[in-house]
Amino acid sequence: MSENKHFDLIVIGGGTGGNGVARMAASAGWKVASIDSLPFGGTCALRGCDPKKMLVAVTEGIEWVRNLAGKGLTAQTTVDWSAMIAFKRTFTDVMPKRVEGGLEKAGVKVFHGEARFTGRDTIEVNGEALSAQHFHIATGARPMTLNIPGESLLATSTDFLSLPERPERIVFVGGGFIAMEFAHVSKRAGAREVTVLEMMERPLGNFDPDLVEILSEATTDLGINLRTRAKVLKIEKTGSDFTVTYETPEGVQSIRCDLVVHATGRVPNIDHLNLQAAGVDFSRRGIKVNPFMRTTNSAIFAAGDCADSGPNLTPVSANEGRIAGKNLLAGKDERAVEYPPIPSVVFTLPQLASVGLSEAAAREKELDFDTHFEKTAGWYSSLRVGAKHSAYKVLVEKRTGKILGAHLLGPGAEEQINLFAMAMGAGLSANRIKGLIFAYPSFASDIGSMV
Length: 451
Hints:
Structural class: alpha/beta
Shape: globular
Number of strands: 23
CATH topology of the largest domain: FAD/NAD(P)-binding domain
Number of domains: 3
Radius of gyration: 24 Å
Strand content: 25-35%
Distance between the termini: 63 Å
Number of helices: 14
Mean pLDDT: 96
């Protein structure tokens, strides 16, 4: 193979889990290539977290007017969907060129196409054979396959974020992050009928059930039709109308709409890689990696949502990539990945946030703890902004005062949870947190009253 087709490192995936590794190796003088079949930037920046939150930001204006009506704020607000999407594109349209340009400036050779392993140290991209001494895989995740009739009619979250016009009737299949966040955006943006179909007992199954119940009330109050124990059986299209047929304990039902969105979750995006040829083991959870982010082929690393490692969150992907890059450059397993308390947030309005153990997990571990749970719509920080649905649940170990878990719902939760994560990472006890002095009045100043 010619010298210009052989590299020290080939990175497969142009998102957060891969770009940092490519730049680190290139800065160390390695000959590096980076490959992605989609525009460079990754899911979070282009098709997920960042553009989603820009849409949430616009609809927050609707929430302010709704909550403060009769309290001194008089306004008539509507969302111009096309203008909102154009606002989102001010970020997403420039990102691929910026990311790709940064890689090239660092000395990384960029390839556009789908990579497929043909051997332990060879791949094929667009019919071109490339080889490398090392590989790093960071291909992220994709929507899971549902295996139902009419599945091809489903729009993806990527499609939703680029809709030129807002549909009047939208159905979300699933009740996780994507469904709940996009349902809130859609309803506040003026959609007439918004339905969430979740097959389990409640949406957002990984979050505290008591807080999810309150969020479900807020979701229903907003005008969203939230249906649980609803298993989708098939999707059909007649003209411009979709019909979604689903099964409930009461029997089979159907609903007509203008758009059906896939929101049931995501799985590792690895099917196309032909990992068997590279000697890389994998499972339904993703590529098998050790604590050093090395796969079963010692020359290949993996990180982020495509690996069977930490939670599928952008900061986790970046951290795992950093560890993989350090070990690549060291030429040995020098640094193991360590996961501090990792917060996660559902960007509905109100926001739902969590870090640490759930109540059920703490009981399974047979820990001795107090549960601090209270609805806080009557607290000043909620009254000040007219928030009707807010609450917290904090688990405190009795013997040590250690914070085992924090679960928050309401305005400010997205930043309060970061403070809890920092306090837990630093080992601060409940008494130490109570002794901290925060700026007042602020959302942070509520934390001492939660522990």
